Amino acid sequence: MAKSIYVKDIKAGDKVSTAFLVAEKNMAYSQKGAPYLNLKLKDRTGEVDAKVWDNAPQWDPVFGKGDIVHCQARAVSYKNALQLSILEIRPLKAGDVDPADFFPCARRDPEAMFAELEGLVASVAAPHLKALLAAFFADAEVVKAFKRAPAAKGFHHVYIGGLLEHTLSVVRLLDVASRHYEGVDRDLLLAGGILHDIGKIREYRYEGLIDYSDEGRLIGHIVIGVEMLDEKIAALGAFPPETAMALRHILLSHHGEMEFGSPKRPKTLEAMIVHQLDDLDAKVNAIQGFVADAPDDASAWTPFHRLFGRFLYKGKSG
User: pLDDT at position 1, please?
Assistant: First the structure.
């Protein structure tokens, strides 16, 4: 079933008949005590609030959060925001829809991005680091997950293929930095950049709604990544202990400060460069996405960005 309209194209007054992903669902009650379903519906272009006003208790067991549903609805404006008033809703089977309609994806083809990353992997000269990276990317399950995983749940590269896109971008920046600055161990720098977020393939669930796995909530991608690194190094056998420690340090310190989740602060040149360029790439992507998703109105400014703690300038139209 092809989608007939996307969230970004819906306007108040439209009659809507199409499929959405249920991102949020809860039962609420009006001031008069009448039950209604409060929903957030989404597709690859955005999300919209929706309400099931009539017969909410009967509709409640029919579908759940994470389901893809077909809706008949009226689009209305409520407090200057778009809202759907649901008239009818029914769940769809996964085979009835194209997942690409509901889950945002990286703009570039994942195979093309992975091929470019493989080229950078091949440029690593140190035999032990080359063997380590080859061990990671000879693992079919790692490669499959690496091509699909998001880089985050809510800040940057929050889409299928986001981890690969972010990693490739960071490693390209690291490659430039290795030529710009003297005294940098390029092979260590690139290996650390390639593996810095590898734990995210297990930190997130991303076959439906992007969310944390149990392992992600309890342990987190930094520790998961170090565990994965240690497993591969152990399987290789002989590996320089100093290099292993330097790689672990890059993974453990790439968030920079303890308040941002790093068990250690960067204490080597390579760790500091990975941290700074990882942070830069994440923030650039977050700003680009926030500006792109800002209301298309006369204002030259976005809404207030909670994490950046500021309004962002969109520029003046025309």
Answer: 65
